[in-house]
Design brief:
Strand content: 15-25%
Radius of gyration: 29 Å
Largest sheet: 7 strands, mixed
Number of strands: 29
Shape: globular
């Protein structure tokens, strides 16, 4: 029996149980609410938090730095309260709020008791919202659609019977009138007046009964959240003047650069930027062939963690949906442009000379450059400026190139990036990775755009371009509510926002249908999954649900936090067959005094308790970690405590780093900084221990038969393939990648190195 079938059976049984236990009770109707606002509370400024944006000068870089999120310990971390959609737009004819709509699902019950009992089961992840809606909802209009309501327009005005939408042909009408038979006005008003975010489940009463309403997604106009600066270049003004001169001659006058990019004026090409051509093609409904002739290409460089890698895949998915393709390595121009090289040779006496001239088309350069940045390490900003230099020069030399800076440095620096590198076209924080297409519309119109305002994360409107056909990243929670004194992540990635369980399961199911075998769940602090939802959920429950998706072979997750990692997560991994026996748990220091100074919220004893549970339930599991040495005030004994915890655990791998001060972090301003000499000495000593333990841990695999999921070819030995064990160990063995990619193969290990294994295929069972 499939999971979907079993869920349906369970839901049907649940209905019988609920009916037998139910009794109708009075419940406060949504219509009794005294509030009559017509905008969702998230669309208005939050009382006591009218100014959440600060511009400060970084003590590290000397540049002005954005602070779009509260960063002090004890500050507000509820995204419903700190994400402020008030644009202070006084235009009465324009809906000032960028928050436009909520996508909803619901289950309709006859009584509050039935609804409450179901909510408890949904919270504990024992039941599935969609299956419950299909099996037990009293709403005939949505039952067959799994309870899907669709989009709720937040502009509905409950004080005005005519409401606010009108057009030339029809009278003014209610934008949500089509929902009257599903969610009556009293229920809609309760939803609109209640602060909520994706994943929340609200309970309310209407004349139809009691509703459980789940917020599935939000619709935000990201362009209203952006800072837009027009490029008033002389060239642009001249081009606009030329177009205006065509007025009255039967020649079309174009209203923006996007139209200019794809049209011809008077038989002569008046082409603007290639980007304008692509975006204009979309807006003017040009054929795919006409858009493809522009041949627009992109190149994306990704720095940093797995979260950035996943963001880059989402960015690429957006670009490819616009008809922009990735640039192929060593691709040449098809134009008449040639690159000429001359070689002169002569004999020993210099009496004879021979000159050869080689002509070949010039190497093609990308039309759009995207740098997805990381700010976790020292000198991150300098690396960005260094990388941008050659591309900025291309633009200064008159080349048609669009420059985009995304990721954490973009969020950190904001508008100051434009001042440092005026050639940049778009600066966008991680929260806009899946909305780059919207932002490029303003770039195509000749503007510079900065999108770093706090926003709720929307579900992807396009499919990410996966870098692997075997393994995939799936985001489950964005941001981090911790306030570690060394870490810049809360400043650059914002507060925690968990995705709805159903959205995660749908994405994983689709990946499995596409042939993916392994999924890694991603979160900056993944153990915090669900604590920002109403009602709260648990990551251990999510693991069990995703791990049971039919067809999924392997499930991984990163990154855990010792403060929040429950023993239940260890048990969930042990009890879920698809979950890999692999845990990445950064402990950062083995000294309690340093952990306290770091603001980590856990002790070495708590960390070792988690390790003990892992060793108890999964004795062969791999444990990896991150650690910082040379933190301000760290004594030699503190460092020795770190080495001691490493000896106790014997990690499979540890990512090490010497402390480096980061902008907007408390520790950066402390006066007890250690010298670089001390930090490098400790880094060297700890790295020696890392190598020793890595070698010891892999040595235990000698002569064992392990199951390897084949991912790619061994780039150094083309006759070999590369895969990983459930422990995350890299394994090389002889094989044809075209035959074995995505296959699970038993391999007998005959060679163990520090960071990889090697062996031969075998029919022997896994040991």
């Amino acid at each position: 029996m499939s999971r979907q079938q079993s869920l349906a059976v369970s839901a049907a049984a649940a209905l019988l149980f609920l009916l037998s236990a139910s009794s109708t009770q009075a419940f406060q109707p949504a219509s009794s609410l005294s509030s009559h606002h017509h905008h969702h509370p998230l669309a208005s400024a939050v009382a006591g938090n009218e100014e959440t944006v600060q511009i400060v000068t970084s003590p590290i870089t000397g540049s002005e730095t954005n602070i779009k999120y509260p960063t002090q310990r004890g500050s507000e971390v509820d995204s419903r309260k700190i994400i402020n959609y008030n644009t202070n737009n006084d235009d009465e004819n324009n809906n000032a709020s960028p928050l436009l709509a909520l996508r909803l699902s619901h289950i309709l019950f006859a009584s509050k008791e039935l609804a409450t009992q179901t909510l408890d089961k949904l919270t504990a992840a024992e039941w599935n919202f969609e299956q419950m809606a299909t099996s037990v909802s009293n709403c005939a209009e949505t039952r067959e659609e799994g309870g899907s309501v669709g989009w709720l327009n937040l502009s509905e005005n409950f004080n005005d019977t005519t409401n606010i939408i009108s057009n030339d042909d029809n009278e003014e009408k209610n934008p949500n009138e089509h929902l009257d038979l599903i969610l009556p006005p009293s229920a809609r008003q309760y939803i609109i007046d209640t602060p909520s975010k994706p994943g929340d489940i609200l309970m309310m009463e209407s004349n139809r009964g009691v509703h459980l309403v789940q917020v599935v997604d939000v619709m935000v106009d990201v362009r209203k959240l952006s800072y837009i600066k027009a490029r008033n270049t002389k060239k642009k003004k001249k081009k606009q003047q030329q177009l205006m001169e065509g007025e009255g001659t039967g020649v079309k006058v174009y209203s923006n650069d996007m139209e200019l990019g794809v049209q011809k004026v008077g038989g002569t090409s008046r082409q603007g930027t290639k980007l304008a051509g692509i975006m204009g093609g979309a807006l003017l409904e040009q054929s795919e062939e006409e858009v493809a002739k522009l041949g627009l290409t992109y190149k994306i460089e990704t720095m940093g963690c797995q979260m950035n890698s996943a963001d880059s895949e989402r960015i690429e998915g957006q670009l490819m949906s616009l008809g922009i393709r990735p640039l192929i390595d060593d691709e040449r121009n098809n134009s008449d442009e040639e690159e000429v090289t001359t070689t002169t040779t002569e004999n020993n006496g210099g009496l004879f000379q021979e000159t050869k001239t080689n002509r070949k088309s010039k190497k093609k350069k990308p039309d759009i450059i995207i740098l997805n940045t990381c700010s976790i390490r020292d000198h991150a900003e300098q690396k960005v400026y260094s990388y941008l230099g050659p591309h900025a020069k291309r633009k200064r030399d008159g080349e048609d190139v669009t420059i985009v800076v995304a990721g954490c440095v973009a969020q950190q620096e904001g508008q100051s990036l434009l001042r440092r590198v005026p050639e940049i076209d778009l600066v966008m924080g991680p929260q806009y990775a899946n909305r780059i297409g919207d932002l490029l519309e303003d770039v195509a119109n000749g503007n510079q755009v900065v999108a770093t305002e706090a926003s709720h994360i929307m579900e992807d409107s396009t499919k990410p371009r996966r870098q692997s056909s075997v393994c995939a990243w799936v985001n489950v929670i964005y941001g981090c509510n911790e306030r570690c004194t060394y870490c810049i992540v809360p400043t650059t990635r914002g507060v925690e926002q968990s995705r709805p369980v159903e959205s995660i399961v749908d994405e994983v199911s689709e990946l499995v249908n596409q042939g993916f075998k392994e999924v890694t769940l991603l979160g900056q602090n993944i153990d915090a999954y669900g604590r920002d939802m109403i009602p709260k959920r648990k990551f251990s429950d999510l693991l069990k649900i995703v791990g049971s998706v039919p067809g999924l072979e392997r499930l991984r997750f990163v990154t855990s936090h010792p403060r929040y990692m429950s023993l239940g997560v260890v048990d969930a991994v042990a009890d879920t067959p698809t979950a890999c026996e692999y845990f990445h748990i950064p402990f950062q220091s083995g000294s309690n005094s340093i952990l306290k100074a770091m603001g980590r919220g856990h002790t070495r004893e708590k960390f070792l308790q988690i390790v003990d549970r892992v060793r108890q339930r999964l004795p062969d599991a791999a444990i990896t970690a991150d650690v910082i040495v040379g933190f301000p005030g760290e004594t030699e004994q503190d460092f020795l405590d770190t080495l001691d915890i490493m000896e106790k655990v014997k990690f499979d791998t540890v990512n090490t780093a010497a402390y480096s001060p980061r902008p907007n972090t408390p520790a950066a301003d402390w006066d007890n900084q250690l010298s670089e000499e001390v930090k490098q000495d400790r880094l060297h000593r700890i790295n020696e221990l890392v190598l020793q333990h890595a070698t010891e841990r892999r040595a235990r695999m000698m002569d064992r038969v392990v199951e390897v999921l084949v991912e790619e070819r061994n780039v150094k030995v083309p006759t070999q393939v590369m895969g990983r064990t459930t422990h995350g160990y890299i394994v090389y063995f002889d094989g044809d990648i075209d035959e074995l990619r995505g296959e699970l193969v038993n391999v007998k290990i005959d060679r163990c190195e520090k960071f990889y294994l090697a062996g031969k295929r075998t029919d022997e069972p896994v040991q």
